[in-house]
Design goal:
Layout (H helix, E strand, L loop, with lengths): L35 H8 L3 E3 L5 E3 L1 H20 L3 E2 L5 E3 H7 L1 H4 L5 E4 L5 E4 L4 H9 L11 E10 L14 E11 L2 H22 L4 E4 L9 E8 L5 E5 L6 E3 L18 E15 L3 H4 L2 E3 L5 E3 L1 E8 H12 L16 E4 L8 H18 L1 H4 L2 E3 L7 H11 L3 E4 L11 E5 L4 E5 L1 H8 L6
Parallel strand pairs: 3-7, 17-18, 17-19
Antiparallel strand pairs: 1-2, 4-6, 5-6, 7-8, 8-16, 9-10, 10-13, 11-12, 11-13, 13-16, 14-15, 19-20, 20-21
Length: 443
């Protein structure tokens, strides 16, 4: 690996403003409420504001998002998901047929083409996917269950976009739509996808709660949300302290204050919704006539479910719940870069030897653990002290920081390694560094 592939911090398009205080209107629109993740993502050069509720995702944020998408793809493939891609532009006729053109109201971005034909920018794709499946004229029960999903941009004309990527008007979502031959099979699919969501959040190390939820504008008869408890969350939840029951307050009738299973008093908390699952039955398949042929060769309506994961919202929400007030902490699996190398300060007595040794560690690491080669950044701002660069690395939340400090002149040379998520500081030889990092997972 030559020097060309080595990402240098000074070359990254990541405009840092790490001195930025917590002043309001940080994103250039004074008076808009902000939250920790929004402030940290702006300061760390992860996002840049465009129009209200729309953001540029800067290269490090895109790296994190692509990793999250890879993990999501793994979990969806494990439950038989097939990935496709549907148009963002969806015809008004489709939405009128389901009744949602009127029911969605002003949240739907609507536009007309030059021929005066109406469209919306899809916030979700139940109508589109059902039309697609209905167009397959000889679908057999042998081809079911069908589990189709996409990870694409969605649009919602939020009245008050706020909190950065937590409530924006343009965002990435993973939406899966399932087609089964019977209600029983559809409910098995429902449980299977819920388990895949659990697995995803467990792998990310995010403390989620699965709660009973309202079906809202999507409809159906059974619905759950996956919530990350957070003070800034917009959903009010009630939770049984012993884990028997959890619900969004919207679903409670009247003043339900105790657990229906054990009678314990329900605790109140707030959450950020990061996933939502719906059992739809034939609500959409009956409109588009999405049928399959049974073993007796009789046409039957497919039983459907739909399942959303807020990809960009998970990025922001994980920073919201894992970070400190001024330092980003990522789920290790999806950090933009796993590793930051800090060479000695320019003009220090360790400069020459330390820089060369650090390059050698980098090259040996790239050879021993090739998957980490592109996952490391060298902080080449050697005009700054090691302490200043370490402080910045801490704020940016690299899971590991490897420093060529005072002890690189020892024999054998010793590097200082910070493991940010545990707060450990280790002093290791080159071989020790490589062994430590061999445990790091990159999706």
């Amino acid at each position: 690996p030559g020097g060309a592939e080595r990402p240098l911090l000074s070359q990254l398009f990541q405009p840092l403003n790490l001195q930025g205080g917590g002043e309001a209107g940080w994103d250039g629109r004074a008076g808009e409420p902000t939250c920790r993740s929004q402030k940290l993502m702006l300061q760390g050069g992860l996002i840049h504001p465009s129009s209200p509720g729309c953001y540029y995702y800067m290269p490090p944020a895109v790296r994190a998002m692509e990793k999250l998408i890879r993990v999501t793809d793994e979990e969806m493939r494990a439950v038989g998901g097939q990935k496709l891609n549907m148009p963002c532009l969806s015809s008004a006729e489709l939405w009128r047929a389901s009744g949602r053109w009127d029911r969605m109201g002003p949240e739907l971005f609507r536009l007309a083409d030059r021929h005066g034909k109406g469209y919306c920018l899809g916030p979700t794709h139940e109508e589109a996917v059902t039309e697609l499946v209905a167009a397959q004229s000889n679908l057999s029960y042998k081809q079911l269950p069908l589990r189709l999903y996409q990870i694409t941009r969605k649009f919602r004309d939020e009245p008050k976009p706020r909190f950065g990527l937590l409530r924006s008007r343009e965002f990435y979502m993973k939406d899966m739509y399932t087609f089964d031959a019977s209600e029983e099979a559809a409910r098995q699919t429902y449980d299977l996808v819920c388990d895949a969501y659990r697995s995803l959040f467990d792998r990310l190390g995010l403390p989620f709660i699965k709660v009973r939820a309202a079906t809202g504008s999507i409809g159906g008869t059974v619905s759950h949300e996956f919530q990350l408890p957070a003070g800034v969350g917009e959903d009010r939840l009630v939770v049984c302290p012993d884990g028997h029951f959890a619900a969004n307050v919207e679903t409670l009738n009247g003043e339900q204050t105790s657990c229906p299973t054990c009678g314990e008093k329900l605790a109140q908390t707030r959450g950020i919704e990061v996933g939502h699952t719906f059992y739809l039955g034939t609500k959409y398949s009956s409109v588009s006539n999405a049928i399959f042929y049974s073993p007796e060769n009789k046409p039957q309506l497919a039983e459907m479910g739909c399942y959303g994961l807020g990809i960009t919202r998970i990025l922001a929400a994980s920073i919201e719940v894992l970070s400190t007030e001024d330092s980003i902490r990522w789920p290790s699996l999806i950090a933009p870069y796993q590793l930051c190398f800090i060479p000695p300060k320019r003009g220090s007595k360790e400069e020459e030897e330390g820089a060369a040794l650090l390059e050698r560690v980098y090259d040996d690491l790239a050879e021993a653990l090739p998957h980490l080669a592109g996952d490391s950044v060298l902080d080449d701002r050697t005009q700054l002290t090691i302490g200043k660069r370490l402080k910045d690395a801490n704020k940016l939340g690299y899971p590991y920081v490897v420093i060529a400090g005072k002890r690189v002149c020892e024999d054998p040379p010793v590097f200082e390694v910070w493991h940010q998520n545990t707060g450990q500081v280790l002093f290791l030889t080159k071989e020790g560094v490589i062994e430590l990092l061999s445990k790091v997972q990159v999706p």
